[in-house]
Amino acid sequence: MTTFSQSNPDLDLLYPSSDGKPMAENTEQYRWIVIIKENLEILFADVPDVFIAGDLLWYPVPSKIISPVAPDVMVAIGRPKGRRSSYRQWQEENIAPQVVFEILSPGNTPSEMERKLEFYDTYGVEEYYLYDPENFQLDGWWRQEEHLTRLWQLNGWVSPRLGIRFETSQGELVIYYPDGRQFLTSIEMQQRLVQAEQRLEQERQRAEVERQRADKMSEYLRSRGIDPDNLD
Question: CA–CA separation, 137 vs 132, rounded Å?
Fold first, then answer.
């Protein structure tokens, strides 16, 4: 796997890795950040040039005047995986994250979210998804020509960049992989893995029982002078 490092002590001081704000304000917000981030990591695990991060400060230009933003989840296609203290775009071949996710929390003010939308619109985000886990409300914007444009129908929407599908008709948001599998929590993944291993073990045991039964039948036939390999 390609490794990447942009460590530079001087730049780290100029462009710090923290804005002093918590990653999440409640467990539900954090749960959704982890679900989206980790499932996207799984989706692109074998693609070396897709960088995915959660709550990482994004500096679009080398300026102290422009305040950075830390998307809850960002996806930068065309950038290698690896460690970063922040996403300094001028060190990333000037590639802006193409897809960002925000999970709404009670502490997010309308003005804050308006600033984030303006930031993402200004600096090149192609897809922006905003989910409110309290009200099961999913909003989205998709870049058409020069600006992000509001998506008015997200039930069944497929991300042009990621290929994932959003379903909102059953209340809480459900996200699907391109192959139809559902985004799961780590616990749900573990449970399904255990269930799959149990099914495999059951199949192995059934196959072993059938083999033993066939061996006993062959032994019985031979005891009666019948060759079980020439029954035809």
Answer: 5
Q: How many CB atoms lie within 10 A of CB 121?
A: 16
**Strand positions, DSSP E, the chain:** 50-53, 58-59, 73-77, 87-88, 99-103, 127-132, 137-144, 147-151, 165-167, 174-176
Calculate Rg over the CA atoms of the chain. 26
Number of H helices, E strands in the chain: 4, 10
Chain position carrying tokens 């997200």: 154
C-alpha dist (Å) from residue 177 to 27, 104, 151, 154 = 24, 23, 20, 16
Using alpha carbons, select from 187, 186, 162 the residue that is nearest to residue 175.
162
Selection from 89, 16, 25, 87 nearest residue 53 by Cα: 87
pLDDT at 21: 64
C-alpha–C-alpha distance, residues 101 and 45, integer Å: 19
Give Cα 212 to chain centroid, integer Å.
Answer: 46
Per-residue pLDDT tens digits for 51-100: 999 999 999 999 889 999 999 999 999 999 999 999 999 999 999 999 99
State the amino acid at position 81 in one-letter form. K
